[in-house]
UniProtKB/TrEMBL annotation:
Origin: domain of life: Bacteria
Native species: Geothrix oryzae
Protein name, entry field: Tetratricopeptide repeat protein
Length: 359
């Protein structure tokens, strides 16, 4: 039955060409109730786009269908199958894979738009090979626009092109881009890299060029041990409270956290009080930074909590990692000359094992 629907949808498209996709996008933009029906799995337009034959459709129709599939993927949101891991679901999104296929036959007349869209698809698919292909084309464009800069900024991080990431980030800000908006997106989506913090990690952690082939992996962090090694700060009440914490090793045997690695970039996946932290994983070193702005607790002190993790792989036991964690608290309105309200450093040990890998 589904095959018949797909065939019928494709035949219908031949007569209407790319107009049906433009009309659908117009319905969605004006929030027409009919537009919501276009987003359904079995909607005629969606089936038509998925069934479109690149060899028979016009180039304009192929590009329109690919653009529509990408746009509606963002509107529909990420779909996670019950039997799939996050990486499996991300890398097998049928609408995005179809869009990529359609764009492969779009010619030089629309090369710039085609390459820009391919870069966005590759990023959304967490596909490093596709990222390399599209990034090489888009990053070489003269006078890139905001959309091109943003995705070059993202993808450069995953490919370990640190100089390129800095360059694209600077250009993005120069054109009016707000990197804090990327942090807000990461606050709302667990698997979204905080690219604002990732840039800071690159600037402060000074990673080298990626060592060895890049991969996409999920890691599980477990068997924690933490120990306070230093407490300081300008806020007497907060410092006094922190000084009551144990200075001995504290085991956290039941605590587990997932770490997402996409190429050279890494992202800590944890909800709750932990802010989104992102950074790089390269040559036996994991370096992550992040922050969360707070509205104030019982003391009424609003401010910012910052995290930094600098972990190194044990040369004798590859699954064991050791390093430091720094927690910094700043209070809104405080004199910058006095330094942070609180700075606590921890010695940390944990096990980290890969649970899923794609080359």
């Amino acid at each position: 039955m589904r095959a018949a629907l797909l065939a019928f949808a494709a035949l219908s498209l031949v007569a209407q060409d790319e107009r049906i996709f433009a009309e659908s996008m117009a319905r969605l933009e004006r929030e027409d109730p009919a537009g919501k029906k276009d987003l359904e799995d079995a909607s005629p337009i969606r089936l038509a786009a998925l069934a479109l034959n690149p060899a028979k459709a016009t180039e304009q129709a192929r590009f329109a269908a690919a653009s529509w599939l990408w746009a509606t993927n963002l509107i529909r949101g990420f779909r996670h199958g019950k039997e799939q891991t996050y990486l499996q679901a991300a890398r097998t999104q049928a609408d995005l894979l179809k869009a990529w296929t359609l764009l492969e036959t779009v010619g030089a007349g629309q090369a710039r738009a085609r390459d820009g869209l391919r870069l966005e698809l590759a990023w959304r698919l967490l596909d490093l090979d596709r990222m390399r292909t599209a990034y090489a084309a888009v990053s070489a464009q003269p006078s890139p626009n905001m959309r091109e800069l943003a995705h070059c900024f993202f993808v450069a991080a995953h490919l370990g092109d640190w100089a390129g990431m800095k360059k694209h980030g600077q250009a993005l800000v120069a054109q009016g881009g707000k990197l804090e908006g990327l942090h807000a997106a990461a606050e709302n989506t667990l698997t979204m890299f905080d690219y604002e913090s990732l840039l800071k990690a690159v600037e402060t952690g000074h990673p080298g060029a990626p060592a060895g082939p890049l991969s996409v992996q999920s890691h599980r962090i477990s068997k924690w041990r933490v120990r306070v090694t230093g407490i300081s700060g300008s806020h007497k009440a907060i410092v006094k409270e922190a000084e009551s914490w144990s200075k001995d090793w504290v085991d956290r045997p039941d605590s587990t956290v997932d770490l997402l690695q996409v190429g050279a970039a890494a992202h800590w996946i944890e909800s709750g009080t932990q802010p989104p932290v992102s950074g790089f994983l390269n040559a036996g070193r994991l370096y992550l930074v992040g922050y969360r702005d707070t509205q104030g607790g019982p003391t009424g002190d609003a401010g910012r909590q910052e995290q930094m993790w600098d972990m190194h792989q044990d040369a004798q036991n590859p699954n064991r990692w050791r390093g430091t964690n720094a927690l910094t608290a700043r209070v809104v309105g405080a004199d910058p000359k006095t330094g942070p309200a609180l700075l606590v450093t921890f010695e940390v040990e944990w096990d980290m094992r890969s649970t899923e890998t794609y080359r």
